[in-house]
Amino acid sequence: MSLYSLNGAPKGAQPWSGTFAFGANIKNFYESRGSATLTGTNEIATLLDGPEKVVMYDDLTVGDGTSATTLTASQRCKGLTIIVSGDLVVKNNAAIRMTARGARVDRGDDPRFPFIDFLIPNKIGLYSDVMSRKAALELIAMHGLAPWDRGFWDADGGLPGLKCSIAEAGTVKLLD
Length: 176
Description:
By secondary structure, the chain is mostly beta strands. It contains two helices and 13 strands; from the N terminus they run βββββββββββααββ. It has helices at 133-143, 150-153, and strands at 16-21, 36-38, 41-44, 53-57, 60-62, 69-73, 80-84, 88-90, 94-96, 119-120, 123-128, 163-168, 172-173.
């Protein structure tokens, strides 16, 4: 159980923490963009050299079979994860790509960009002493944050006021 209250709190928000089933319930953490059919050049808004972005669609069709169509990140970033809860169709002359969209890494041993396979965690732990549980979950959904991205939970560069941990590792690889 997580509690959040401003009543009687000397400094405002009360700290809370919770463990959330994530892997099998991943689609419940993100807002869907609905169903879409994309043609031409399509970019998902990302931050330059920023964190991995997660977007979700009910159904997604990329291309019309004739027109050249691409779906990619708008800027270099740590990754783009597209979740489709229904049908995903990529037609002839269409592609989903990240060519020249990887985040800039200044050195090969940068701990914020480990060269490992990312796994979708089965469970995540969240903690905050400045925002409510509801606000934290809305932040993840609204900004398409990826708990498996070290930049989300890293002590050196995570989100101010929200801490995340991997409570149970996953088995589904995002990279191979």
